[in-house]
Amino acid sequence: MSQRSRVLPGFGLSLGFTLAYLSLIVLIPLSAVFIKSLGVGWDGLWEILSSERILKSLQLSFTTALIAALINVIFGFLLAWCLVRYSFPGKRIVDALVDLPFALPTAVAGWIGHLLEPLGIKIAYTSLVQPVLSDLETELEEAASALGANRFQIVTRIILPILFPALLTGFALAFARGVGEYGSVIFIAGNIPYETEIAPLMIITRLEEYDYAGATTIAVVMLVISFFIFLGKSPYRENRTMSLNTNSNALAEKLQSRDATREPAWVRNTLLIIGLIFFLGCLILPLVLIFVEAFKQGIQVYFASLVDPYTLSAVKLTLLTAAIAVPLNVIFGVTAAWCVAKFNFRGKSFLTTIIDTPFSVSPVIAGLMLVLIFGSQGWIGSWLIEHDIKILYATPAIILATVFITVPFVARELIPLMEAQGTEEEEAAIVLGASGWQTFWKITIPNIKWGLIYGVILCNARAMGEFGAVSVVSGHIRGETNTLPLHIEILYNEPNSISAAFAVSTLLAFLAIITLILKTWVEYRQEKQDRESKESTELHMSIQVKNIEKNFGAFHALKNISLDFPEGQLVALLGPSGCGKTTLLRIIAGLESTDRGQVILEGTDATNIHVRERQVGFVFQHYALFRHMTVYDNVAFGLRVRPKATRPNETEIKKRVTRLLDLVQLGFLADRYPAQLSGGQRQRIALARALAVEPRVLLLDEPFGALDAKVRKELRRWLRTLHDELHITSIFVTHDQEEALEVADQIVVMNKGDIEQIGSPREVYEKPATPFVFDFLGQANRFEGENHQGIIQIGEDRIQLPSATQTANGKVIAFARPNELKIHTQPTENTIQATFLRELWIAGKVMAELQDRQGQLIEIALNPDEAKLHQYRPNQTVWSRNRRQDEYYPYSSTFEVSNIMNFQQLRIIRETVRQNYNLTEASAALYTSQSGVSKHIKDLEDELGVQLFVRKGKRLLGLTEPGQALLSIVERMLIDADNIKRLADDFNKVDEGTLTIATTHTQARYVLPPIVNLFKKAFPKVHLILQQASPVEISEMLLLGLADIGIATESLTTEDNLGSVSFYNWKHSIITPQDHPLTKLNPKEITLEKLAEFPIITYHGGFTGRSKIDKAFEDANLDVDIVMSALDADVIKTYVELGMGVGIVNDVAYDTERDKRLKQIDTDIFGLNTTWIAVRKGHLLRGYGYEFISLCSPEADIKALKKIAYPDD
């Protein structure tokens, strides 16, 4: 777990409940399907799958799913583009009705609903694309336009590549959902074998014939394909909740007001008309037709259908099912979201994948799972019959099926919302004395209420409209086990009940409309809240820390720290980012644990005392005010959550809160919300809230770091005055030297987990104990020279130190501040000759810049009158001298003179880019806090004087031009640091370590096994990791340092930052079934023209020589029908066996034993291909890494490869 979970309660309980719930509802039922299918053996499986009828049904399911996914991508993108980029009347209504296919049950939607329902899956396409489009900075498009790109090029080369992850995710989710669709199809398909019988209908047919093996085998094929595509989707994630779309009218007006982002009127109007036609014809018209058909026989027939006893029974059962399923999944969703969002732990990604799994499972398969467990031939079926317990074909099975289908909805709404909100508010509540339960109910739940309401709305709509799963387990007992969707099906199939079916359908249609109304209301309330957020007793304690040590992985944050904090004083912990000051403050508060050492509060060991019991007040850098509470309620919170025995009455609370608000001069804002306050006002309220609980010590973490310079200066004076009134023992963290010198009674200067100096502001400034303190506090001139018996030789100049100065002979570094030096126009003793460069006049002060004969810059502070009197000229020869000889500060050169920049900052820059500018993910990957990451970035930008990141508010969107230039340097520096460690490892443990190889499936399956076997025999202690990916992904893995060696045919030789050597040459082979017409020909008779007569199955673009195949057909001017492309040869051969086409694969990918049903035909028509071995330039491998390359390619020149990987220059 990361440090942020230190004080938050409930990790073990929430994780345990989440795992148990998922196991019972998802994993165990799914395993029943796979176990049952394996019971017939491989031969039995093959016999079932080779049935022409089953193959036809699977083909039809995959085809319709593909069509649905393509419609989702094309029209979903069009609608999202119009909603974000354009303003038009009725935009909010259109935005709401886009989700109609989701809200409308499939039993009502019919075939059109089958094609369009995936479009409305809330976490799929539209909600992913709209935020991405909203976040696209106009500068990207303007930059492309300035470089000469036209509008079409901007869309295809800038916008679409950025949107690609969302497009891919939408396609995967839509396909997985479409493969298993059943409810809408059953009404219009007719279940005609070989024509309209899709796979879910085939499963139903097999179940009716008690052919469980056949049903489960079909289910497994559907699951595997759906899982493969669903789990392979792009990991696009947002930091905010996926469900709440922002109103983009302001963005649309901005985009259409700029030349670079404004489309011509005819383009805009055409897109809007196409979108409107699709919207009305495919979304609105089906709903209207339902009502037209319902009232065709007159109003009396309509109402008679609604009050029919069977209808009322179906309504009752539907409501009962939703009333049980929804609360269960709400409890699960909140618990799972708390576990996933608030804690980091191994297997977290796997857990979120399991939560999403029901999205990719056909409802019919969900019902089948329950049949396999609770049916008469199921796991516990005989036991249930023996004890007369009825689950299947009764209400319990209907509820269980509905619970499975609706498992993800609440959790997937809350997880991104909770992740975006972080943990500071919960930590603040606990510091103020709230228990875990109070924190959850008073802070967490109010903060997530809109996301929770939204999740409940979606979960309830799906629960009441579920058809496929319920149809399998209900038994269709009229008046007993028919929900509304099932009752509609029965009425639809009866000769004279069509009008009644449509009448009952209107009930579910009304449910869909109510769902959309509630959805729009929730979004409106969230938008309103977001809009508002944009507008707008003396107690002493002695504190000791003894021998404190703290590590975060390999990072040593604190090194044997011992300190006494004087009672009643204001102490500053000062140092650069990463020095350990915030970690020490959090340890004192109890928000962070120690690895060793003690925290002593008022003579009592508080090391293991909970933060709630330490009586400390903590002010967070970003305030951590409870956004849903007024200023008054924020300050009163800590008092109201006290145990009853010590809780003041409301009168006393009001008196104390009013006094504190008057103290911080903000009593007039008591009824305002945090979003309506300025940054300075929020910080004062945070301080008042911390003081309300009468803490014995006040701790402040960078209290002014998030404010602008002017407000910071005002609040520094105010804090000093406030402390003088209260005299409460206070410790504050800062990296601002001026802030510490101005405010603190005592300063503790820290560096790299150690204490450099403790003293008053004057002591640390005027008598710095170490070179670091001198260099860190204020400006300093630095002179390097050789000391011999008190005389320092600096180039050609000499400085004699006073006899009282004790400095060892040898190389030294001397320091002098600008105000301690003076300019002379004639040489004297103890002067340094220099060239006058220029004067800088800043706010009434003058700074002269000189350059000595070694090229070193010297800064000297001048009196304005002195500058006017002498009027020094550029390039004039002058001499610098100390105003008082003893004000030089010499140190042995063995002392380290630290700069603010450090490797931790560089790692943070790199990791932030790798995590797609998500600071939460970057901090988790580096085992540090999000605020620490933000401070590191800000410190580095301040030090360099440039902005490294493009920002939108507090969010990072990308790198600026200086940031891009810096990143390449950072990568090289960190590689060099890693190489130093690798060289040491080679000397210490030559034959131990890890080697990561990234390659394609074909290489891993058919080429590398004998090489890996030889390598493991030679290096048994080396842990070998074999990762399979596409060639483009392999290149990226090498460049990011996620792999040591890459092996692939394409992409590796085109990347400038990779070095490569050839592995082996190979050709493509043609693969066909044994009785295919091509097998009758002589291989030399097979030409491109002959091959183009047949459907082709081959590698996906960018895999295993696909570019050579495409070029061969293109050069021959042939149109080839590539019916399917896949990522690996085994998949290609599987579909060749099914007779879908002729395969083209790497010639090594034919296994005579496994592929005996296939025929390999050697051919030269595609030319020769080369597989390459690549390493990242600048990345030095361990010795055994080069041995692996030698085993792959004995002729490879390892010295040359090392030269490529790490050139001398």
Secondary structure topology:
Layout: H1 11-38, H2 41-49, H3 52-85, H4 91-97, H5 100-103, H6 106-116, H7 125-135, H8 138-146, H9 151-179, H10 199-208, H11 212-231, H12 249-256, H13 265-294, H14 299-306, H15 309-342, H16 348-356, H17 363-374, H18 381-386, H19 395-406, H20 408-421, H21 424-431, H22 436-447, H23 449-465, H24 468-474, H25 484-493, H26 498-535, E1 543-552, E2 555-565, E3 570-574, H27 581-589, E4 596-601, E5 604-605, E6 616-619, H28 631-640, H29 650-663, H30 679-692, E7 697-701, H31 709-726, E8 730-734, H32 737-743, E9 746-751, E10 754-759, H33 761-766, H34 771-776, E11 781-788, E12 791-794, E13 797-800, E14 810-816, E15 821-824, E16 831-842, E17 845-852, E18 857-862, H35 864-870, E19 877-882, E20 889-892, H36 903-914, H37 919-925, H38 930-944, E21 949-952, E22 955-959, H39 961-988, E23 993-999, H40 1001-1007, H41 1009-1018, E24 1022-1028, H42 1031-1039, E25 1045-1048, E26 1058-1073, H43 1088-1091, E27 1096-1099, H44 1106-1115, E28 1122-1126, H45 1129-1137, E29 1142-1146, E30 1158-1162, E31 1168-1176, H46 1183-1192, H47 1198-1205
Parallel strand pairs: 3-8, 3-9, 6-7, 7-8, 23-24, 23-25, 27-28, 27-29
Antiparallel strand pairs: 1-2, 1-4, 4-5, 9-10, 11-12, 11-14, 12-13, 14-20, 15-19, 16-17, 16-19, 17-18, 21-22, 25-31, 26-29, 26-30, 26-31
Domain HTH lysR-type: 901-959
Keywords: ATP-binding, DNA-binding, Membrane, Nucleotide-binding, Sulfate transport, Transcription, Transcription regulation, Translocase, Transmembrane, Transmembrane helix, Transport
Family: Belongs to the LysR transcriptional regulatory family.
